[in-house]
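User: Let's play a game. I give you a shape written as tokens, and you guess the letters that built it. Ready? Here's round one.
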């Protein structure tokens, strides 16, 4: 099977796209064409891929990326058995003549936006995509009218842990934004600094958060590494006293499982999380739950862990064992590939349109 995978908004090393889904397809013997912003993200494509470079769609600067995406998808899908896209942007760039097409729904974009007009337009685009395309979901959602396969954001869980939990460093992996607790993380770093505990932030930041992080780093409160490919970020997290997941109680997060929670468990890092329902369900007591927006409670939880090595080592062992049993991506990879193989053998549900324009999803 030949699969064309496309993104113009996400990093080419995105863990879900490159290191889970594409890797599963390659391991199953399939050929992959990957449309992604390699140059803009300073990434060299893996040699086993057929790579098509496009500009990255960022903020309001998306027209050039859209035009390039139209041409790239047309080229990539020409001899493909299946087209797999990961962005709302690419739903508006789909070529008229294409194989069966799948939209991988990563997150609820409409829930992240203020106002009424844009979220309403996104909902209409989602409904249209559901009628015309195959969908796979990162997590169960009630915003779609039909059932769709769920391909969760599980991770690679090593057979054994390489580093024990230490006592002088905490970490937070993932995008840094206001609703993801960026300000809380900075305050936690300030509270723990007198105790010799350093905070490592590993991930990109929203534009208005970056000056706060730079100031905190210049003050010696924390180290902010920016974007790091997921497999390297997880290695950097190993041996930390705790992994923090401080997302706020907002609609975009309320029904989501922060991937970092299971990544910390997988790498033997004790977890401190806010009480999002799915995070609490995933931890099942093998972590520490703190109130929303309460840096003092987070700092105290860290100090308690530092003072109790037996407790943190117990959390480490139990969390790793359960992650290996429940959240190991290779256990899910076969089902993901099987869905794509089945759809590639089916006729496309999309009706033909004028050859002079792309088909909106």
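Assistant: Ready! My guess for every position:
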């Amino acid at each position: 099977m030949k699969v064309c995978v496309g993104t113009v908004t996400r990093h080419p090393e995105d863990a879900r796209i490159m290191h889970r889904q594409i890797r599963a397809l390659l391991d199953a013997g399939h050929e992959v064409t990957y449309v992604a912003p390699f140059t803009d993200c300073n990434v060299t494509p893996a040699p086993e891929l057929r790579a098509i470079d496009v500009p990255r769609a960022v903020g309001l600067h998306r027209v050039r990326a859209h035009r390039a995406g139209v041409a790239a998808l047309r080229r990539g899908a020409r001899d493909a058995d299946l087209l797999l896209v990961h962005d709302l942007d690419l739903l508006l760039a789909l070529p008229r003549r294409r194989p069966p097409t799948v939209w991988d729904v990563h997150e609820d974009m409409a829930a992240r936006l203020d106002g009424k007009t844009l979220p309403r337009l996104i909902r209409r685009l989602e409904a249209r995509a559901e009628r015309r395309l195959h969908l796979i979901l990162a997590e169960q959602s009630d915003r779609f009218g039909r059932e769709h396969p769920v391909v969760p954001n599980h991770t690679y869980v090593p057979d054994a842990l390489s580093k024990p939990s230490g006592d002088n460093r905490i970490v937070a992996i993932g995008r840094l934004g206001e609703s993801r607790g960026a300000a809380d993380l900075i305050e936690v770093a300030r509270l723990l600094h007198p105790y010799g505990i350093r905070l490592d932030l590993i991930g990109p930041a929203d534009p208005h958060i970056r000056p706060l992080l730079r100031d905190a780093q210049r003050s010696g409160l924390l180290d902010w590494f920016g974007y790091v490919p997921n497999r390297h970020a997880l290695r950097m997290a190993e041996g930390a006293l705790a992994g923090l997941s401080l997302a706020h109680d907002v609609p975009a997060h309320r029904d989501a499982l922060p991937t970092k929670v299971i990544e910390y468990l997988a790498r033997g890092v004790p977890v401190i999380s806010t009480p999002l329902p799915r995070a609490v369900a995933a931890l099942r007591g093998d972590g520490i739950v703190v109130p929303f927006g309460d840096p003092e409670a987070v700092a105290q939880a860290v100090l308690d862990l530092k003072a109790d090595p037996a407790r943190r080592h117990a959390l480490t062992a139990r969390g790793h064992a359960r992650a290996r049993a429940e959240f190991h991506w290779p256990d899910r990879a076969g089902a993901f590939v099987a869905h794509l193989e089945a759809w590639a053998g089916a006729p496309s549900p999309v009706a033909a349109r004028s050859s002079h324009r792309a088909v909106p999803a």
